[in-house]
Amino acid sequence: MRNDLSVRTHAGVTILKFSRPESMNAMTPDMEGALRDAIEAASVDPDVKVILLTGEGRAFCAGADLKAVKAGDYYEKQGKLLARADATEAPYIGRFSYFALCPKPIIAFLNGAAIGVGMTIALHCDIRLVNSDAKLSFAFPRLGLAAEEGVAFLLPRLIGASAAMELLLSGKRFTGRDAASYGLATLLDDPEPDEAAALARVGDMFDLCSPDAMRRIKAQIWESWLAEYETAIRTARKEVMESRNSADFAEAVAGFAEKRPPRFQGLES
Hints:
Strand content: 15-25%
Helix content: 40-55%
Protein name: Enoyl-CoA hydratase-related protein
InterPro entries: ClpP/crotonase-like_dom_sf (IPR029045), ECH/Chromodomain_protein (IPR051053), Enoyl-CoA_hydra/iso (IPR001753)
Pfam families: ECH_1 (PF00378)
Strand order of the largest sheet: 1-2-3-5-7-10
Family: Belongs to the enoyl-CoA hydratase/isomerase family.
């Protein structure tokens, strides 16, 4: 058990749960590092067939912890995570490339709010299951930021360019039911879905399917994207770094701290 991530393995399934419900599981670098450690451990565990990722409480992950950003060394710690990602032996780089490298299917159960980096993580999972009432958003433009690692590459490939443009350029909130209509996630029919309902939906994967065949199929899909993915990651890092150093992002953080809408340049009436 980690303070920010709980890990439980039973009957061939590792359940990873973001465990900062008081902050709606807002992401910190320590939490992100714990996630990578847990997925890499499950990757080499012969008893694990499937990994389920979800959140405790009302949220999956409600974005980066802007309180931690304002407080200090958030980006210094995140830089160490990026260096770790770039040192990974793989045919491509990426902050979340280890999701694709994992030979086990990774399923995101979006039990509640998934915003910003919460959606970035969900896109890097192999399957997304969603609660119909979950509140989702690619919030980047509302924070004065470019789309981060892999998002502008993966989302159009999952739901088409037009729908991806709508969601990314507006940063609007949409529901789990909307996500299912876009083809972004599979809706769980249970009125109050939980981990058990999510596992029941994918039960055939760990009851009837060959782990070796699943490994091969997952690799086939991800490897078909690799060459373009690395180029997209490098572009995203450049754009995110520039936008993160902008006056607009500073204004977004200030607006969050002061509990008011941000006053971005160019939006004056």
